[in-house]
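Appendix C. Worked example: Amino acid transporter transmembrane domain-containing protein
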Amino acid sequence: MRSENADAETGKGGGVEDVAADIEALDLQKAPNGDQVDDDGRPKRTGTMWTASAHIITAVIGSGVLSLAWCTAQLGYIAGPASILTFSLVTFYTSTLLTDCYRSPDPVTGKRNHSYMEAVRANLGGTMHMFCGLAQYFNIVGISIGYNITSTMSLVAIQRSHCFHKRGRDASCAASHNIFMIAYGIVQMILSQIPNIHELSWLSTIAAVMSFTYSIIGVVLSASRIISGDTGKATLGGVEVGPNLTESQKIWQTFTALGNIAFAYTYSVILIEIQDTIRAPAENKEMRKASLVGVTTTTLFYILCGSVGYAAFGNDAPGNLLTGFYKPLWLIDFANICIVVHLVGAFQVFCQPLFSAVETWASKRSNMSNITTKDYPVKIGNKFKYNINLFRLVWRTIFVALATVLAMAMPFFNDILGLLGALGYWPLTVYFPVQMYITQKRIGRFTYRWIGLKVLNICCFLVALCAASGAIHGMSKALREAKPFKGNL
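Step 2, the predicted output written as structure tokens:
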């Protein structure tokens, strides 16, 4: 363990292990002097518990909330809300463990870890740091694809609702998703030029407001449908085995639903990066408060959306809650627009760690240093000025373009969410926070606390394994039936 840490600190590790140290060195070079710097020489942070809460809500309430009515339909009135509550408790508990790993070795006075990967390296060594990087970046890429798919479904829903309004509910209103995916990608290419997460507070605030708005609209529309009596069949056990559903299909869909719920709580992947925006001192205390506000708020919305949505549609609940409504037209259109605006912001928040890692790695290469570090000022009018970095412009544009192409090839909403939730939740939300906490606090083997943390780790791993198998099964079936790039949803 010590030898790995020593290698990482001296820069002798290769590839992924050097990224965190490179980020620190580069930021120190750019840092201002005097009162504008923190204790480690970096630019002074200005974030608060409330801005961190906005980042969390932006990251947590995403496309996952729209699938919760479908998840509840697979699990039932009892197991559905119970699963949502269980995931929320686990997420909040492990997030409190992770906040204490922001500084090492002491959570209050230790050296700052500016990223999730840096925290893993400081506590677990270079090898685990590499595996964390692979899990984090794979999850970020997957989320960027999932958000494109979800935003496109909302835009397609607007187009189809207008078609149904004009031609009737029985009309054929198939809509092409390719043009919407490309448009979404272009917007992200522009916004991805925002340099770092510290400059995204305004976008996160807007996105958080949008997430509350469309969640409330979904609940209100579901409640109005319940009041009108136009509801589907709902049971305590969820979708029932019968002529249209075999026992094995029921099991696979249950597993996929668990993955969807896990995806709805995947924000630990950027928790350390969010905490790094909070001004000193006592960042861990402020981050705990922000996590409590964020997770509690989102859980209330999740249970409402899941339970009320299931009550409204019953066992026929759609994979995306808002796609099941067609009236009032203006309100549904507004809700879908809110989804798109929110996911535009969430995409940027989630992708910043990957953007930063690649650009810092490139800046340390001598043959690329002039391209990666030089900014070109561009003026628009007399007041607006923006610095364009050529490497950032090219690399982030390529990344967004690739994510858009992959989204066009895999428009499978629930299965994609289930797989991303399964692959991202256990390692990043449970395993690494638990292992870092055990190491930092020097918790003895086979003590009650050690056993409890290990049991939590194993249980979450088994749930993730089931969720991944269900999602893969669903995707394999969808791939046999779907026609990638054909452009219809």
